[in-house]
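Predict both folds.
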Amino acid sequence: MKRTLLVAALVLAVSTSIIAGTLAMYTVSLPNLAEGSVVAKEFVLKPGETNTFSEEIVGIAPGETVDWDFSVKNYDGEIVSETGMDLEFTVDITDTDENNAIAPLVVTIKDQDKEEGQEVVGTKTGTGTVTFTDEDGFEANVSGEKTYTVSIEWPWETEDVNDIDYAGADYGTSIKVSVTGTQQQQKDTTE
């Protein structure tokens, strides 16, 4: 009888451990991969000054778009630039420090302040640089603010690109926006 109880207890212990290990629930927490975000940046420029911000794009999928709005101002509180300024923009689209760039991404820069609505002032697919100048800039002694949008889109289907090749933790794109205020040449009023 002792032997039967010992064998039954041993069988029960072994079967319980096998069943517990087999039916155990394991969970993994993932970041919110499909969430888009809006990052608002503000540049306050003096003539000849350059300001920069950069962001990394990770966790974007085909068919998704991420928009970043940023503004450029020629005043800080009550202090307004005494010279007129042209605005020069450079947008660098590169690999991140740890990842290769997502080649199918299309980066578009839009000027929000045009009378007709949003005007596309530059676009680039993959990596590279987009440059443009806003020669309307700012008038001397008049406070002003201009708003721009950087739109990052991964098109649903890209010709000659297999989107799955850019999936996973090895891919991400860095976007760096630089804005320079250049003093406008004074007009000769002696004529």
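Second protein follows, with its predicted structure tokens after the sequence.
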Amino acid sequence: MDLKRKRIIFVNFVAILCFLCIGIISTHRWTNQAKIPNQRIKNHVQFYKMDEIYEMKINQILTGDFSTLQGKWKSNPSLEGIQFVIKENCVWYGNQRYFLSVKGQENSGAVALERPEIENAAPFIFYPKGTPIPVLLENGQIDRTGIFDPTDQGKDRIIMAQTILNKELIKSVTAYHE
């Protein structure tokens, strides 16, 4: 037998041996994986109730973390309303920038935010979803039940007001998170 033929037989033998080894290894790997017991991994997702989420959001804002307020806020577009952007601890209102600080929590559950660089400025009052805005009625009474609140209580809202307003004024100065 000549040397060239011996080399071809040897190369074919090595190739067949490699394929056999790969086949044995892959078969062994699949059969061992099939023997692994099927275990259920416990789910560690925490679910919160709406009142817990509300409380966390309020606590976050009261500690000076305004991240839940970040973004565009806009009042009803059909009215001559307001629009502004909150980014970190700043309010961008037109071309003006104001810094936010926490003034305190209102009796209604809302949070008053002030702009300390403006003396006697109306505070921004954050009303989370589900919290009614107090309304000044025509007879001089103040409704805190939410029955006369003209805003969408299903959304977070910010109102810029020094005092309690009537329904029409509340509609025009209430901004919603976009």
